[in-house]
Amino acid sequence: MQTSVRQDLEIVSFFLARNDVFALEATSCNVLVLVGSSLLITAERAAEAMREGVAPFLLISGGIGHSTQDLRDQVVAHPIYRQIVTSERSEAEIFGDIIVGALGVSSQQVVIENQSTNCGANACLSRKMVDQKNWNVKSMILIQDPTMQRRTHAAFERMWEDLPETKIQSHSVFVPTGDEDSIVGPNKFSGLWSVRHLVELLLGEIPRLRDDEFGYGPQGKNFIPHVDIPAKVLAAHRRLVEAFPDQVRSVN
Questions:
Q1: Cβ density class 204-222: b for 16+ within 10 Å, e for less
Q2: Which of 39, 114, 146, 195 is within CB 3.0–4.6 Å of 172 for a Cys-Cys bond?
Q3: Across residues 45-71, what is the average pLDDT?
Q4: Which phi and psi (to 5°) does residue 178 adopt?
């Protein structure tokens, strides 16, 4: 991979992997929200945070979507988690079994939302769950696939905009960056995606975040509030589109 391409991947990755809480174990919140994905490391980090007392409750949000089969495959291949039933089960249910059954978090602390299939639904159904539980949520921390962390954060901001006193923060477990053969993070979590798949994820996210007629912002589909995208990120994204034209997908 050319150095310039790697640098552009990192610029876009660092922007998308919104990280307001760098030392998760040193903070606290009313509820920790784990959003479903194919990344086992996010469930492991959420479990670690719960054992450290970061939050009294963990809300896991995620139905059956485009990443569910990848998650199931990873669980089946895992030396510890492979005993967990995955067939016809949602991402939230699978994560819940990992966190409670394998990683020792109390089931009384874990709430499952298993119907959402996109970031907007994650936020909407999580809000409904919080309201049903009558939790007095003044602060929450979100953990998500880092390539979707910023969009997820924006969706939750939109869903809680009637309660501006609620503090919403994001914790990105790692920032994916590319080498020749795989994707690694700062702590060397390898084998997460192929470089090709990472490029596809990154190229698709920036158009969704744009506040124009094609994006998810108020001037487009109005799924999320306005998100400021730095010129440096837009320029890096434009160069990646030029470098990987076959990876560009339409926004939906």
A1: bbbbbbbbeeebbbeebee
A2: 146
A3: 96
A4: -105, 145
